[in-house]
Design goal:
The complex is a heterodimer of chains A (97) and B (238). By secondary structure, chain A is mostly helical. Helices cover 65% and strands 0% of the residues of chain A. Chain A has a domain of 67 residues. In chain B, 25% of the residues lie in helices and 16% in strands. Chain B is α+β, with helices and mostly antiparallel strands and 238 residues long. The chains are: A mainly alpha (97), B alpha+beta (238).
C-alpha cells in the first residue's frame, strides 16, 4: 500500500481494499463472499493498473489463493466456510486461474 | 496527413494518424467512458476507465493515450471491460466520501453520471471514510479533498491553459491529494490568479464556487473549450 504512487485508481484504491480484505480474513471476520470479492479485485488490479507495481501487487495473493486456498478457507467465519466442500476441493485447486 | 483504417467494435472507422483511439471512437459515435480525460488537456491514462481491448496485445490499452494504427481491431465494451469499469467506480466511491445527497455537484457530477451509465448501483467494498480537511480559505472557491478523485484535471488545466501551475499532487497512494503552491491554504497561494479554470474542469464536487449548496454546482466547460480552440486552432468560436 505504501508503495503505490496514487496516480491510477486500481492500484491506489485497489491495494488498500486488498489489504483490508486480507486483514478481515486474518481476523476471522470474512465470509466466502469476501474471498470471491478478493479474487475479483486481484484480477482487476492486475489487469487494469497503469504500471508494473499495480500489475504485480496482487500476485502474492493470487498465488497463495491458488496453492494454499485451504488456509484461507480455514480462516473464514465458521458459518460461511463450506466445510464438506473444503476437504474435497483442496487437492486440485491448482487448476484454478 | 495520412489516414488510418481500423475496426472499433466491428465497425470500420477512418481516422487521422495522430488521433487517439478515443478520438476515433468518438468521431464514429462510439462512446468510451472517461474521467481524467478533458478536451484540450494532455492525457494521463490514470483513471483506467477508457481501457480497451486491442487485438494482438495481451494488455488492456488506455484509449485516451494510444494512437490509432492501420488495421487495429479494438473492442470497447466487452463483458470483461464493463466489469472492470464498474469495479473501478466502486473503488472510487469507497475511497473517499462521495455522498451524492449532500454534494454540491449532485445531478451535475461526472462520477455520478458514469455510475448511472455503467450500472454501478451498489458498492461491494467497505467505505474508507477519508477524514481530509476542507479548504475554504480562498475568497471565491472551495476545495473538499473528500470528494476529490485525483484525476488531476485541475493540475493540468492550471499548468497548461492558465500557465500558473498553482496545483500539484502531494503525498502518495491513498494519502495523495491535490495541493496549492507548497501545500499552503488556497487563499494564501500567491501563484493562484483566481481564474477559476480548475473549478470549471473538476468532474466531481471537490472544487466548487463558494456559496453553492447541494446540487447547485454547475460547471461551464464551454469557456475552457473556447480558450483551447482559440489558442490551438486560432478560431474564436463562441
Amino acid at each position: 500500500m505504501d508503495e503505490s504512487c496514487g496516480k491510477c485508481i486500481p492500484c491506489r484504491a485497489g491495494t488498500v481494499q486488498m489489504h483490508h480484505l486480507l486483514t478481515k480474513i486474518l481476523d476471522g471476520k470474512a465470509t466466502l463472499k469476501d474471498l470471491q470479492k478478493l479474487e475479483e479485485l486481484c484480477d482487476m488490479v492486475k489487469n487494469t493498473s497503469l504500471c508494473g507495481l499495480g500489475q504485480t501487487a496482487p500476485n502474492p495473493v493470487l498465488s497463495t489463493l491458488r496453492f494454499f486456498r485451504h488456509e484461507y478457507l480455514e480462516l473464514l467465519r465458521p458459518e460461511s466456510a463450506p466445510a464438506p466442500v473444503k476437504s474435497a476441493t483442496t487437492p486440485e485447486v491448482s487448476t484454478h486461474a | 496527413m495520412a489516414a488510418k483504417t481500423l475496426t472499433i467494435d466491428g465497425k470500420m472507422v477512418g481516422a487521422h494518424e495522430d488521433q487517439t483511439i478515443l478520438e476515433a471512437a468518438r468521431d464514429a459515435g462510439i462512446k468510451i467512458p472517461t474521467l481524467c480525460h478533458l478536451e484540450g488537456l494532455s492525457d494521463l491514462g490514470a483513471c483506467r476507465l477508457c481501457l480497451v481491448e486491442v487485438k494482438g496485445s495481451n494488455r488492456l490499452q488506455p484509449a485516451c493515450a494510444i494512437k490509432v494504427a492501420e488495421g487495429m481491431e479494438v473492442q470497447t465494451h466487452s463483458e470483461r471491460l464493463q466489469k472492470y469499469r464498474r469495479m473501478i467506480l466502486e473503488l472510487l466511491f469507497a475511497e473517499r466520501n462521495h455522498v451524492c445527497a449532500v454534494c454540491v455537484s449532485n445531478g451535475h457530477c461526472e462520477l455520478q453520471n458514469l455510475a448511472i451509465e455503467l450500472g454501478m448501483d451498489h458498492v461491494r467494498f467497505d467505505y474508507r471514510f477519508s477524514g481530509f480537511d476542507v479548504d475554504i480559505t480562498h475568497n471565491r472557491y472551495g476545495l473538499d479533498h473528500n470528494r476529490c478523485i485525483l484525476c488531476t484535471r485541475c493540475v493540468r488545466v492550471c499548468n497548461e491553459v492558465e500557465g500558473a501551475h498553482t496545483w500539484d499532487v502531494a503525498g502518495r497512494g491513498a494519502d495523495a491529494r491535490v495541493i496549492t503552491d507548497l501545500k499552503q491554504p488556497w487563499g494564501e497561494a500567491d501563484s493562484c490568479t483566481a481564474c477559476g479554470k480548475c473549478v470549471m474542469a473538476c468532474p466531481t464536487g471537490a472544487l466548487f464556487y463558494k456559496g453553492s449548496t447541494v446540487a447547485e454546482m454547475e460547471r461551464d466547460r464551454t469557456r475552457l473549450e473556447f480558450i483551447v480552440t482559440a489558442r490551438e486552432k486560432k478560431q474564436w468560436i463562441v
